[in-house]
């Protein structure tokens, strides 16, 4: 099933003790979501801490623009 968006996750490592032995674990926190543009040339992101503010990540190579 394709829901049309992706979760943006942040990993936080922490340590617990299991029978007196330290054990490293990772907690994954959902901080936003991302979805591809209709053209496929970019991904839009929205973070829960900044609702209503959308960020766009261009997936195209801009190397030709920087050489001009």
Describe this structure in words.
The protein has 68 residues and is mainly beta. It has one helix at 63-67, and strands at 6-18, 21-36, 42-47, 54-58. A four-stranded antiparallel β-sheet has the order 1-2-3-4, with no helix packed on it. The protein is elongated and about 55 Å long.
In a nutshell, what does this entry contain?
The chain is mainly β. 7% of the residues lie in helices and 59% in strands. The protein is built from one helix and four strands, in the order ββββα.
Notable traits:
7% helix, 59% strand, 4 strands, mainly beta, 4-stranded antiparallel β-sheet, 68 residues
Stretches with pLDDT under 50, minimum 5 residues: none
Order of helices and strands: EEEEH
Total DSSP helices: 1
Structural class: mainly beta
Main beta-sheet strand count, sense and barrel state: 4 strands, antiparallel
Overall helicity:
under 10%
Distance between the termini: 43 Å
Q: How much of the sequence is in beta strands?
A: over 45%
> How many individual β-strands?
4
Overall residue-averaged pLDDT value: 86
> What form results from the Cα inertia axes?
elongated
Rg from Cα: 18 Å
Give the helices and strands, then pairings.
Elements lengths: L5 E13 L2 E16 L5 E6 L6 E5 L4 H5 L1
Antiparallel strand pairs: 1-2, 2-3, 3-4
